[in-house]
Prior knowledge:
Blueprint: E1 9-14, E2 19-26, E3 30-38, H1 40-44, H2 51-73, E4 82-88, H3 92-109, E5 113-117, H4 118-124, E6 137-142, E7 147-154, E8 157-164, H5 169-179, H6 186-194, E9 214-215, H7 218-230, H8 236-261, E10 266-270, H9 277-290, E11 294-295, H10 299-302, H11 307-319
Parallel strand pairs: 1-4, 4-5, 6-10, 8-9, 10-11
Antiparallel strand pairs: 1-2, 2-3, 6-7, 7-8
Helix pairs in contact: 2-3, 4-11, 5-6, 5-7, 5-8, 6-8, 7-8, 8-9
Amino acid sequence: MACLNENLVTVGIETSCDETSIAIVRGKSEVLTSQVASQVDLHTKYGGVVPEVACREHLATIGPLFDTALKSAGISADEIDLVAVTRGPGLIGALLVGLSFAKAFAMAKNLPLVGVNHLVGHICAVYAENKNVEFPAIALLVSGGHTELFEVHDHIAMKHIGGTVDDAVGEAFDKVARMLGLGYPGGPQIEKEAEKGTPDFYVPVAMKNSGTLDFSFSGPKTAMRNIIEKEKDPALADLCASFQTAAIEALYIKTKLAIKQGNYRSIIVAGGVACNGALREKMYELGGELGMPVYIPSVKYCSDNAAMIAIAGALEYTKSEDKSAYDNYLDLDAVARWIP
Length: 340
Ligand code: KG4
Ligand code: ZN
């Protein structure tokens, strides 16, 4: 039985996409180490993540990375009390590598195991650096696979209130970058170019006036294709600035609408796209406008990492009244799609 005080030691395991990550967290959110092995260089030449390549790389990396994490945290495997692993959403094969590793370790050491939702994990990244987030919070989760709005009631208790009807915003950044001949992942490349340009091309803010909390990024993506085909020699920096401005405007408008429709005390922004400096600035601006605190994890906790998974697992386990539920994990399956 794991200790339930502030000394609970949780190992987090994340392999849902193209980052292998192992983290060790003490208590609910004190990060002792967060090791991330990125596969970006392997996938860049294909212009996106190749699932088979990702699985093989996770397999080769996970064992040594686990040892590195223990060393870096200065603890032994016997000091771990709880295992938290990403169960989904993500690439099934990639998830299975982490899940199998987690089950084997939990079984060998007779430890409880929590299967964590990756999206909940992204939101929990905020708690690594902020211990006193005011609830209820509105959370905007922006990643390569998701663009979602959640009402967060108490750390991990959340309700889905809106999301994209087609592409995720990160996916749109990646696809537009590909159209422009920029590498994968596209978000950071578009941001870098956008800093040098002005948003002179018209890119629609899709569903701007829908009155709902839905997003759409497929229209803006098509608009970009049309501009690229029609314009004679458009400046790359201006194209990037135009797309980025429209994408951020959509995120800003819908988050503001959600706040207007609800009763929130703070704003959380999380996920890989939250690395974007212009988005961060705009969301801090929204907080200033509405007089609300805004919490955005530092860049290392926005992109995929296992610290967020360990925090989510520790919070769920600590809160749970039936701890024995975490002893029966052998049948726990990986799930490709899963919105909490
Ligand atoms: O959360 P994440 O690391 O992985 C998923 O769970 O999907 O997010 C990755 C996504 C990619 O689409 C990537 O292009 C985007 O985050 N991204 C950015 C930036 N950095 C990463 N998008 C816009 N601007 C950035 N600076
Ligand atoms: Zn992610």
